[in-house]
Write a structure and sequence with these properties.
alpha/beta; TIM Barrel; eight-stranded parallel beta barrel; 46% helix; globular; DeoC/FbaB/LacD_aldolase; EC 4.1.2.4; DeoC; Aldolase_TIM; cytoplasm
């Protein structure tokens, strides 16, 4: 495996978090993660114990799971319980959907308290907050991104992948600009289906990419054969 392929694999969150994702789907994702040493594989929380066994000999592949998924509308106490249980089951990363309805209502005090509580509950496990940018305007994206940074979120993530839009270059650029070089980083997720879009998102500052099995395989196979397609990663 060349440097370009290796480096991109360490930026991919491979995802099998749709309602119809089966055990066979997850095992197929695990095989690709093993092949390319992908940084993490995300599954719905009930699959975490099974995935932990599947990856027991591959400690470099992290196990992630979404919390409050996909609506973000459950009570904060429910999210906290999910975080505790999912980490206890073997998750090494947490992606939590922010309360979208509260954001759209302008109830940023609620959102702030929930983000703070989630970071505290997950510590020292890194946690991302999912904004679901499809429903938000620029000001709302900036507000939640700022709260995420202040709460100590490791990442701000664009979307669940359950809406019709997700990781647009424009929205990712807004998040990167708001974070402005601070410790929190940006994960793009939702609708990434080509190497070209990955490259565009990388150019604006994205450093994690939520990809499906088919897209991840296509992109990594492509770069394994043709590393010159992404020279920025040849380091």
């Amino acid at each position: 495996m060349n440097n370009v392929c290796r480096n991109l694999a360490r930026m991919i969150d491979l995802s099998a978090v749709q309602a119809q994702s089966t055990k066979a789907d997850i095992i197929a994702c695990a095989e690709l993660a093993k092949q390319y040493n992908i940084i993490s594989l995300h599954v719905l929380p009930n699959w975490v114990p099974m995935l932990r066994e599947e990856l027991v000999d591959y400690p470099d592949v992290l196990i992630g799971a979404p919390i409050g998924y996909p609506s973000g509308g459950v009570a904060t106490s429910t999210k906290i319980a999910e975080i505790h249980q999912t980490i206890a089951n073997g998750a090494s990363e947490i992606d939590m959907v922010c309360n979208i309805g509260r954001v759209l209502s302008g109830d940023y005090d609620y959102v702030e308290q929930e983000l703070n509580a989630a970071v505290k509950a997950a510590y020292p496990t890194p946690i991302k907050t999912i904004l679901e940018t499809h429903y938000l305007n620029e000001e709302q994206i900036r507000q939640v991104s700022e709260l995420a940074v202040k709460a100590g979120m490791a990442w701000v993530k664009t979307a669940t992948g359950w809406t019709s839009t997700g990781a647009t270059v424009e929205n990712c650029a807004i998040i990167v600009n708001q974070i402005n070089g601070r410790a929190t980083q940006v994960k793009a997720s939702g609708g990434i289906r080509s190497l070209e879009l990955v490259k565009q998102l990388y150019a604006v500052g994205v450093r994690r990419f939520g990809l499906s099995l088919s897209t991840a395989k296509e992109v990594l196979d492509q770069l394994n054969a043709n590393p010159e397609l992404f020279p920025e990663l040849d380091y």
